Each structure stands twice: as C-alpha cells, then as structure tokens.
Amino acid sequence: MKRITIKDIAKALGYSIGTVSKALADSHEISEVTKIEIQKFADGNGYQYNQYAKLLRTGKTNIIGMIVPAIGNSFFSQILEGIEEKMSKTAYNLIIMQSYDDPIRELNLLETLFKKGVDAIIIAPTGNCISMDYLIKLKNDGIPVVFIDRINYDINTHKIGIDNYKAVYQGISHLIKRDCHDILFVSSMAKGVVEERKRGYLQCLNDSGIRINHDNLLSIDVEKKDAANREELIKHLTHRLMTNTLPQAIFTASD
Q1: How confident is the model over 8-64, as pLDDT tens digits?
Q2: Which residues pair with 252 in a beta bridge?
Q3: Cα distance between residue 18 and residue 255, in whole Å
Q4: Nearest of 172, 181, 191 to residue 247 by alpha carbon
Q5: Could you give the CA distance from residue 74 to residue 76 in angstroms, rounded to a whole number?
Q6: 211 near 178, Cβ under 8 Å?
Q7: How does DSSP classify residue 126?
Q8: Above 80 in pLDDT, residue 1?
Q9: Residue 226: its pLDDT value, please?
Q10: What pTM was computed for the model?
Q11: Cα 71 to chain centroid, rounded
Q12: Half-sphere exposure of 93 (CA within 13 A, CB side)
C-alpha cells in the first residue's frame, strides 16, 4: 500500500498543502474544526508524520532521550514508569537507552541521541570526564540536560536526586547511637553516588572517634550475575563468622 502524503490529504479534502501541514503540526493558525477533520482523515488513512521533516522545519522532534545504567534495575524501572506516565499526557515520545555503566557506550549513546535531534536528555551518568564534556557541549548548544540519581557532578544543569553523603552519614549515626561501632559497609564498585555514600560512612566514623577497619569496606562487582554477587557476600560473611569477627551491624549502600 502506497504511503499517504500531505499532498494526498490536501487533494482528498480540498485544502491547500500548507493548511494540511499546519493542521497536522497543531498550528494556532488553523481552526480546531479543520484540525480535527484533517487529523481524523490522516489517522484513518495511515498517514505517518515525518519527524525529520519537522526537525528541519521547527528544530524540534518532540523526542526526549533517556540513558540509564540498566532498565532491569528496579530503581530505574520505577523512574521510567513515572516518566512515561507523565509523558503519555503530552506530545513527547521517549527513547530509552542503557549504558550498562560503560563510559564508552554512554558517549556513543549521547552522540546517537544528538544525531536523532532529541529535544532533551535525561541521564544517570557514569561520571566519565569525556561524557561530561560532551554533556556540557549539548547543554551549551541549547539541549536541556537532566541528571537523575547521580547528581554529584560539577555541571550547572537540572538535577533530581538526594544528598547521598548526608543520607549515609545519618544512617551510620543512627547505628552508632545504638552502640554499633563495628559496622560492615557493603557497596558496589561503581563510581559517583557510591563514592559519596562511602565518604558519608567514613566521615561519620571519623567524627565519632571510631577507628576505621578496612575489613569492613566490602565492594562487590555488581556486573556479575546475582548468584555470583550472593556468593561473594556469603563467602565474606562466612569467613567473619568462622573467625568470630562478625560485625555488629551491616549497612548496604547498594541494592
């Protein structure tokens, strides 16, 4: 079946090509009655709007690009649900990409989104300096950039997240008040927020006059499969149990 064009719609309905084009673009110059008539005909006959033509004409594609470490991560999947629910009430579409916390892949994804002409980018960045420089370039070129979760970077842009340092500091303070001084700190090996959380842990111990035991700093490679993660944690705790050196509390800084 031949793809229907704006010219075909104009001929079928008796409008000029300009009127049809403006109606499909939801221009204020066209009456609502005419817009509805043209849009209904276009939808009914399988008309597909050309996003790239719109980009050339208006500089906008109504596409927002989003880069997260992994969609399978429950934290980021919940964020995606919220974003998609909000965007479903708008004319914007979302492109979702996964960096897998790989800086090179992240940079390639950013370049791809730029080539697609996205109107904005939402990202949980790896913190790689090359990607950061590219994000600054995009922002300076007029593309809005929003950081989510991983916000502890020196870029003047929109950021949505929590103070990870403060949150962990308060958590460790709570344990110390309950007379827990020997606290095992479990985290991933990722940079960014994990480093801020670890800094909160170490600073709280230091401020409380508690000697830092480096055996209590356990970093797990979350790139491994879940079974391997569990095995590594079990092995560590079993060793602590067998040597009668179990901690008084365990603080996990990663899911």
Answers
A1: 999 999 999 889 888 887 788 899 999 999 989 988 888 876 655 665 566 678 899
A2: 186
A3: 55
A4: 181
A5: 6
A6: no
A7: -
A8: no
A9: 63
A10: 0.67
A11: 9
A12: 10
DSSP 216: G
For the record, the structure tokens of 133 come out as 């420089």
Residue whose entry in the numeric block shows the structure tokens 């960096």: 99
How sure is the predictor about 65, in pLDDT bands with cuts at 50, 70 and 90?
very high
**How many residues belong to the chain?**
255
Structural domains present in the chain = 6-49 (no CATH), 58-160 (3.40.50.2300), 164-252 (3.40.50.2300)
The backbone torsions φ and ψ at residue 250, rounded to the nearest 5 degrees and listed phi first, read: -125, 125
- pLDDT at residue 208, rounded to an integer: 96
Rounded Cα gap, residues 150 and 31, in angstroms: 45
Residue 232 has pLDDT above 90, yes or no: no
Q: What one-letter code names the amino acid at 84? A: E
d(CA 240, CA 134): 45
8-state DSSP, 215: G
Q: How far apart are CA 144 and CA 122, in angstroms?
A: 9
CB 240 within 8 A of CB 246: yes
